[in-house]
Amino acid sequence: HENTTAFKKATFGLGCFWACDALYGAQPGVLRTRVGYSGGTKSDPVYKKIEDHTEVIEIDYDPKRISYEDLLELFWNYHEYGLTTIVKRQYMSLILYHNEDQKRVAEISLKKEAHKRNEKLITEIAPAGPFYPAEDYHQKYRLQKYKWVCDEIGLTPELLQTSHVAARLNGYVAGVGKEEQFEEDVVSFGLPKTVADFVRNQMKENYGGNLYC
Ligand code: MHO
């Protein structure tokens, strides 16, 4: 419940959601992520029939460790298709706010960013409505490429949407996140050596982030 938990929710669309999942998943202060369809009016969209919805990421975050402003900073800087080119609704630039405070911060942030770039940005800001989780195979897509890793640490389809460990590893394998942070996670999560070695190697290979679809 909004008022009884320290965590807050943020919902963004900034292109293919596989990339968003990896970008946000490994940020300190992010508890969990899941990808899905939102922002439209039709019921029960699916990947093959997304209707008027957009691919979005839903983030549960600890506002004491990462602010909404920080999340927006990442948002502005990681649009695969940029902020000025109109793309289909599936990949549109979209901020879905969960309360008036997020709305206000997002509007200010958009103005600032447009001013900084000296361009009109296509980003839309709207209230968050129903969120439809995407099919299992889209969740933690980067990590699921390595099925043996998911099996090794017991990631069920449900955990792919709820697990903090899954969110972080999905970011790490795409090259997001710092090495020191990863080494701390290896210890605190008790990652098996095979998994830790593999992820460490992926981080090196994708150093700096290999996000896009
Ligand atoms: N070009 C990507 C898009 C995937 S995405 C989840 C593909 O391989 O289908 O929209």
UniProtKB/TrEMBL annotation:
Keywords: Oxidoreductase. It holds the Pfam family MsrA_helical. It comes from the Eukaryota. Residues 154-187 form the Selenoprotein methionine sulfoxide reductase A helical domain. Residues 9-149 form the Peptide methionine sulphoxide reductase MsrA domain. SUPFAM superfamilies: Peptide methionine sulfoxide reductase. InterPro entries: Met_Sox_Rdtase_MsrA_dom (IPR002569), Met_Sox_Rdtase_MsrA_sf (IPR036509), MsrA_helical (IPR049006). Its EC number is 1.8.4.11. One of its GO terms (molecular function) is peptide-methionine (S)-S-oxide reductase activity. PANTHER family: PEPTIDE METHIONINE SULFOXIDE REDUCTASE (PTHR43774), PEPTIDE METHIONINE SULFOXIDE REDUCTASE MSRA 2 (PTHR43774:SF1). Belongs to the MsrA Met sulfoxide reductase family. This is peptide-methionine (S)-S-oxide reductase.
